[in-house]
UniProtKB/TrEMBL annotation:
<keyword id="KW-1133">Transmembrane helix</keyword>
<keyword id="KW-0472">Membrane</keyword>
<dbReference type="GO" id="GO:0016020">
    <property type="term" value="C:membrane"/>
</dbReference>
<protein>
    <submittedName>
        <fullName>Transmembrane emp24 domain-containing protein p24delta9</fullName>
    </submittedName>
</protein>
<dbReference type="InterPro" id="IPR015720">
    <property type="entry name" value="Emp24-like"/>
</dbReference>
<feature type="domain" description="GOLD">
    <location>
        <begin position="35"/>
        <end position="125"/>
    </location>
</feature>
<feature type="signal peptide">
    <location>
        <begin position="1"/>
        <end position="25"/>
    </location>
</feature>
<dbReference type="InterPro" id="IPR009038">
    <property type="entry name" value="GOLD_dom"/>
</dbReference>
<keyword id="KW-0732">Signal</keyword>
<dbReference type="Pfam" id="PF01105">
    <property type="entry name" value="EMP24_GP25L"/>
</dbReference>
<keyword id="KW-0812">Transmembrane</keyword>
<comment type="similarity">
    <text>Belongs to the EMP24/GP25L family.</text>
</comment>
């Protein structure tokens, strides 16, 4: 196989890796007056997006008011990066400012009688956080710095050796 064939094979492998989802949504239950936390080890300056929603126990009816949650996402040093109180859904987006375990905690008030609330949660970091336009709308990340990389992926990797900035982006992702 010649250099062009190796380069094409490498580009194809990279494209498959980037476009393959690295995570799936989680579904878990939170009991009344209880807390569930999920942690994710995140590197410095990584793009992070997440969304969560309470699963309606009765599809044909509106979500009961008792099915509201409080959500807090915090950094390894305890800094809050997202907080929402008494909600049935939400999302967040940020660029990590610390390296380590970020924590997403979900809790419910004490209900009598007790209820169990199912939550669906999708947390993506790095390349898997490909919700570019919604992240850009939040104003948290300069999407223009990632556009050359995305362009590289969809243009077959042509001219990468002539663009040191793009090569740097590619190796640092």
């Amino acid at each position: 196989m010649g250099i062009g064939g190796v380069r094409s094979a490498a580009n194809l492998c990279l494209l498959i890796f980037v476009l393959t989802p690295l995570s799936e949504a989680l579904r878990f239950d939170v009991q009344s007056a209880q807390t569930k936390c999920i942690s994710e080890d995140i590197k410095l300056n990584s793009m992070v997006v997440g969304k969560y929603s309470v699963v309606n126990p009765a599809d044909d009816q509106p979500l009961p008011d008792s099915h509201k949650i409080t959500v807090r996402v915090s950094s390894p040093y305890g800094n809050s990066v997202h907080y929402a109180d008494h909600v049935d859904s939400g999302n967040f987006a940020f660029t990590s400012s610390e390296t380590g375990d970020y924590l997403a905690c979900f809790w419910t008030p004490d209900h009598k009688p007790a209820v169990t609330i199912s939550v669906e949660f999708d947390w993506r970091t790095g390349v898997a956080a490909k919700d570019w336009t919604n992240v850009a709308k939040k104003g948290q990340i300069d999407v223009s710095s990632y556009l050359p990389f995305v362009s590289f992926l969809f243009n077959g990797g042509s001219h990468i050796e002539n663009n040191p900035r793009l090569l740097l982006k590619l190796t640092s992702v």
